[in-house]
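Re: beginner question about structure tokens

> Can someone show what the tokenized structure looks like for a real chain? I only ever see the sequence side.

Sure, here's an example I had lying around. Input first:
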Amino acid sequence: MNSQIKQQTVLLVDDEIQILRSYEMTLRMEGYTRVISNQDSRETLAAFKKSQPSLVLLDLTMPHVSGEELLKDIKADSPQTPVVIITGNDAVETAVDCMKNGAEDYLVKPVSKDRLLRTVERVLASNEWRKHVQLLERKVKSPQLENPEAFSEIVTNHYKMLSLFRYAETIADSSEPVLIVGDTGVGKELMAQAIYKAGGSRGEFVAVNIAGVNEQVFDDTLFGHIKGAFTGAEKSRAGLVEKASGGTLFLDEIGDLPMESQVKLLRLIQEGEYFPLGQDIPKSADIRIVAATNQPLQTRCEAGTFRKDLFFRLNTHNIALPPLSERACDIPLLVEVFLQEATKSRPDAVELEFETILPDLVAYAFPGNVRELRSMVFDAVASGSLDVLAERLGTNREKCLLQPLPEVCRDQQQGQLAFPQSLPTMEDAKDMLIEEALRRSGGNKTMAAKLLGMTRQALNKRLRKNEV
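And the corresponding structure tokens:
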């Protein structure tokens, strides 16, 4: 069961104090941390509005205000909040009336602990899934991002990336794990940070690279230790799980996690519990796990080096980032951004004409992706010459898969055009096409001209004509 479900608020309503205490103790012992008991039915609606519970367990027969009345009032105020009736009245007619008035389920007293826990778990899980589906439907219908600033660190104008932004924003509020896959240098951590920002988490974003971490280092880094846990442990130390409480724990290079540590990570995800080194009593974790890998985890599962159950839990939400070679029309935008970064600390830097080398950059396959492009720009700015960059591209060109230049941006919505109801004139259409080419190329005229299949001189002539 998802540990985040146990952190949702449950409101118990019953006029018998012994029953309230029994139900509350049962839920708390199972790990539910937010349980509110209400004995006076006259105060129930106020308690409901204040706590905004995810589930209400409601008795029917109570003095002052009956359960039937409260059920109608609760569903009128919050139709989406599930209500489970718990009563000693086993009359079929009463049960039918309650279900008609919006009750999620109907339990007859005495209710066993197992029955109570199964019902609460099922209803909360179903309600969370229903809210997630509703959110997904709303996002799918709206192509616009509600929180575009969360993705501002990722420079792109490519439709696949923008589609991933919409999906990432959709799952940002989910408590389920996210697995981000992609080649080295595509920006997996930036995407993880964007999901964290879009989700509005109250806690921190804490990142850790798993590569080269053995079992003991993993345990100590993530879970911390108590005083005397091992030689040199002179005082207790909290781990990154505690530091990320209420926020996101980002595990990079998850494919390198040792098998022994995979079991502990699985427990952390499934049960929301972990053991600091040297401690026998588990601690609760309130975190969202986002993992990243450049390895095919399915292949590692088949080879027996990665647990299938852990893979399935991590892969609840999946984001596959495309390599830079598949979104080459982003290269001019990225060059401009990296050029600004590189020259910010070098006010005396030589001004370089990157337009002259853009065709070679676009044709290059970039095995190191965005990170490699950034290093190229910084290297050129530091040396004050494009020669080193041209030599680097020429040396590596034969080792990479080259892309024909005309295909650079022929990936925008399958190349389809959308026209307004009133068709533009040929002259207006040309201007609109030039405007779009400049937008996609980040204002780079050389690149825009190549996208349009014309020379830069012809493009400049057209632009000058429009300025007159």
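Each token stands for a local structural state, so reading them left to right follows the chain. The two ends are 68 Å apart (CA to CA).
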